[in-house]
Amino acid sequence: MTRNEVCKILNITLKSLIVYEEHGIVIPKREENNYRNYSEDDLFRLRTVILLKELGFSLKDIKNLIDKNNYGNSHFTRSLYLQLKAVERKIDELDNVKNTLKTSIDKMLECDFELDYNRFVHNIDISLQENKTNRRRWIDMWGFDNKAIKFDKMVRNKWNDELGLFEKYDEILSQIRSRIIKHGAANVIDIGCGTGNLCGDLSGKIDILGIDQSLEMILQAKKKYNKMRFKLGNFLDKPFRKNDVDIVVTTYAFHSLNHNEKKEALNYMLEYLKDDGKIIIADFMFLNDAEREKCKSILCGKGRQDLWDVINNKYYTNLEKLQGYVKSLNCKIHSEHIVNFTWIVEIKK
Q1: Is residue 11 over pLDDT 70?
Q2: Residue 318 DSSP SS3
């Protein structure tokens, strides 16, 4: 495509296109006559540029983000994912300003004396500065999540697992697969599916939908299991299917949710299930708060505050509280301690 054709398709000016080229954001190939020939990849890259520019990103930051995003396969998918995350970032920024403005208006309406308007203006300035700082951090961190590539090795590397968090990892996954088969499940939703290690081997015989909030995890899983279906999402997304799933399963992911989020997630997971369906959770848990404090005392007593921090930075489930909540929903729950911090919990309607 020529410059004029690109400008017409994207509804941009020739000046804008030249500026993008000068910044090295798009570099079209040259024909023998030295004329530029824009490819479909160039066109898609420019669409990404236009959206990010509309969201307020500078051309320098746009080039930084696109360059970080340009690796491996699935370029189009990664580009769409970048745009999605940039939109979410913008929504967060607008919500921050919106809440500051609303709070300021409410306080002004409540007061019946002369106001210090500079204070309200200062609060708005603070929210704008927070947005700039948070955006800078987001831009700087983009593309540095290579956990997906290393995940399969990480969970099987005992040398870097002093807490034994992934002890018997493969045996536990095998046991859960056996439970899925024994249940006679025809369809399964795996939330926090990661690289597909749990259900990938079942996807040839059972309808498996893997859900994960990490695009990179999903892309790794797709390489390994081409019969498994995938969807971007997380525990707190409202169910897109109801009452037609045999099993909802999750492994080594539930500890990312705090106690109230766990309740919300359980409610959503139950909505997916058929009347005879069940939830299977394999994750890090403590029986109760007393067991948690005992663990803290032991680790800190050994001078291993660092290991306790690993635990304390996540939300290991309090099993007794989980049991109480599940029973309040008139559901049945069965729990089994497997090894170290890992339990397997089954919840039935």
Answers
A1: yes
A2: strand
